Amino acid sequence: MAISDVEPRLMRRVSDAVAGTNTRVMTVPPITDMLTANKQSVDLRDIAMEDLIGRRPVDIHVDAIAGYVTGKRVLVTGAGGSIGSELCRQLVGFEPAELIMLDRDETGLQSTQISITGRGLLDGNDTVLADIRDTESLEHIFEKRQPEVVFHAAALKHVSLLEQFPDEAWKTNVMGTLNVLSASANVGVDVFVNVSTDKAANPTTALGHSKRVAEKLTAWMAGQTGKRYASVRFGNVFGSRGSMLPLFAEQIRQGGPITVTHADATRYFMTIPEACQLVIQAGAIASGGEVLILDMGEPVRILDIAERLRAMSGREDVEIVITGLRHGEKLHEDLIGAGESDERPLHPKISHARAERLDPAHLDRHVWKVRGGMLFTGSIPVITDSTQPRITDFSVPRAREHQKPSPHAERHGGDRS
């Protein structure tokens, strides 16, 4: 497949067409990567799940992006994580005057530094070891380094773990975000982009509720400063820490079973580079207090992903087990919450919603936990209405046509159309 910017839909058609014929489907890097790579040879590789599900990135004029990053002091929190590290790698290409990578994970910071500079000595000004929960430390760092643009990617994000320990979600995702916002406002940061999640739309978990509050705090600070403080919301990111793809791959490697919560559960997906491109674009086109939401197309059934990954691995013998939805977990995610507008003034694929403002003076952890149903097991509300479009048919055609229905499919009605 030597096609520039090939659509994932075409990738799936080709992959399905040769399924069962012992044919490898390979692809080449984008033409821009070939022209800028130091190596003389072109790396052919087998297609991956990201090629089949990913979307074509939404194009925004590069000069609009470069205008607010080039020659500026840029700080990224959570720089050692999967999203934060890719953000740093993309930002370097816009030639900021200084890129400040902040994280509490020293190993993550080293990995990010190596990926950018080829060295991991951690002895320069580009890496900063700090915890966003530490107000005093953040204030000192911001006063000393004087960032002009901030990307806030540091967060706790594991749903089940935060259901057990909601106070940790409060400390990092709420108070940690407030600390970064306050430090930014104190030194006059011009652009602040808060990385959020689709779980903040109609939240039903501690993670979703904490990220929702972070969006509201960002909107409030935008009103206080009059500057471009905004949030970006997107769905699941392939390859990020804790995402399902590495989990499924490891389960297949160990011989199974592959665990899926519900036969009909769906999610929106994008790749790490796509997610980071949206975050950087948000700083160029968002107005203060907005939440930018990417049109992620049609949701994909998780069971279909598990079956396709199993087929691509040549391990049809691995069992898929339905475990049941966990406490607070939705069957289908929403990108736009109830009561939020879906305005697209600048690009047909990017929605601009207006977040409610929350004065930090009104923050109350106890009230937050009560409203989120976190004090009583099983009391987090379930949102029944969904704003999702129809589901993408991502199943494996040949497996569906030639195999008998699995027990879990029969239990759930067997309707996969």
Quickly describe the structure:
The protein has 417 residues and is α/β, with parallel strands linked by helices. The chain contains 16 helices and 16 strands.
Note down, in words, how this protein is organized.
- The protein is α/β, with parallel strands linked by helices.
- It has helices spanning 8-17, 31-36, 49-53, 62-69, 82-92, 106-117, 135-145, 159-164, 166-186, 206-225, 244-253, 272-285, 302-312, 365-371, 397-402, 407-411; strands at 26-27, 45-46, 73-77, 98-103, 127-129, 149-152, 191-195, 228-233, 236-238, 258-260, 266-267, 269-271, 290-294, 300-301, 320-322, 350-354.
- It has an 8-stranded mixed β-sheet, sandwiched between helices.
- Helix 5 runs parallel beside helix 6 (106-117), helix 7 (135-145) packs parallel to helix 9 and helix 9 packs parallel to helix 10 (206-225).
Topology, element by element:
Elements: H1 8-17, E1 26-27, H2 31-36, E2 45-46, H3 49-53, H4 62-69, E3 73-77, H5 82-92, E4 98-103, H6 106-117, E5 127-129, H7 135-145, E6 149-152, H8 159-164, H9 166-186, E7 191-195, H10 206-225, E8 228-233, E9 236-238, H11 244-253, E10 258-260, E11 266-267, E12 269-271, H12 272-285, E13 290-294, E14 300-301, H13 302-312, E15 320-322, E16 350-354, H14 365-371, H15 397-402, H16 407-411
Parallel strand pairs: 3-4, 3-6, 4-5, 6-7, 7-8, 8-13, 9-12, 10-15
Antiparallel strand pairs: 1-2, 11-14, 13-16
Helix pairs in contact: 4-12, 5-6, 5-12, 7-9, 9-10
